[in-house]
Amino acid sequence: MGFLFARSSGYSFVALALLACVLLAPCQAAKAGLSIKFYAKTCPGVDTIVRSVVAQAVAKEPRMGASIIRLFFHDCFVNGCDASILLDDTLTFTGEKNAGANINSVRGYEVIDAIKSQVEAACKGVVSCADIVALASRDAVNLLGGPTWNVQLGRKDSRTASGTAANANLPGPASSGASLVAAFAGKGLSAREMTALSGAHTVGRARCLMFRGRIYGEANINATFAAALRQTCPQSGGGDGNLAPFDDQTPDAFDNAYFKNLVAQRGLLHSDQELFNGGSQDALVRKYAGNAGMFAGDFAKAMVKMGGLMPAAGTPTEVRLNCRKVN
User: Fold this and answer.
1) Active site (annotated) includes residue 74
2) Looking at 51, 74, 266, 320, which residue is catalytic?
3) Number of folded domains in the chain?
4) What residues bind Ca(2+) 2, as annotated (predicted)?
5) Are residues 197 and 156 in the same domain?
């Protein structure tokens, strides 16, 4: 079974074509020994539990959907998809939660805790926190109107975390196009996959601190867009935590508006607009802006591939009973 599409997402007309794509596409997840049937006998209701909790969280606060997607990205980019981002600091290591790219940025830990609690009640000690994050991010995308896909499962949870690795591996809001390509290439992801995955910024918000430099100091920005943002993000300082949506047209809908905004020079972060700034990704951004189905298919396949990033061989792992601490 391949991609399915959410109601009113605008993608259903390409469902059959994308089904063929996902069935034929090779992925790192399969190579890593993961399987969509991993819990078929040991915890068959895990998908239902995860989706139910995520649906409640997104209904209460749509922004939470974007936060859960971000949680998955920021976990997988640091030593693989191992739920290391969920670990609280201990006396023996400084974890990832308070790394520069995560503090005041990554949210949704309590949603994962709620899922884990219900999953443990149904199937104690079986389902990893890393798999819960992967399933939750898929459901968050779909519940916001985007595509869905079969999640490869069977990950284990790391017994340690590294704030240093998080600071070294996670691209920042001031990243150049070249550095983004390089960062994703370092994870085995192509420039096309990087651009598709960046489309996750079609939902969510960013703090004023992350885009102040762009709205006051860059030329490749729509003047009306910049002026509106300046109302809540003063140049002189203050208001660092004030939020603005990545996509001010449909801020809580997972669609291809992010790419339309880039073409119109309405990218919120410097790193966003770098994807459409006279560089190698301009043509692809235009294609995604004009073809929602192409973006949906590429995004889903790239999420499966990113979900196949594994910890280094020899990394101590387990299935944590509490996602915030080792057993």
Assistant:
1) yes
2) 74
3) 2
4) 202, 247, 250, 255
5) no
Establish if 181 belongs to a structural domain. Answer: no
DSSP reduced 3-state for 236: coil
Q: 117-131, pLDDT tens digit by residue? A: 999 999 999 999 999
* 190/186 Cα distance (integer angstroms): 9
pLDDT digits (tens, 9 = 90+) for 4-43: 333 333 444 334 334 434 433 334 444 568 999 999 999 9
Structural domain span for residue 274: 193-296
* Pair 43, 126: CB distance under 8 Å: yes
Please indicate, yes or no, if residue 224 is contained in any of the structural domains: yes
Return binding residues for heme b. Answer: 201
Q: Which residues are annotated as a binding site?
A: 75, 78, 80, 82, 84, 96, 171, 201-202, 247, 250, 255
Q: Are 227 and 235 in contact (CB under 8 A)?
A: no
Q: Are residues 144 and 236 in the same domain?
A: no
Averaged pLDDT, 300-321: 95
Q: What is the pTM of this model?
A: 0.90
Query: Do 115 and 238 reside in the same domain of the chain?
Result: no
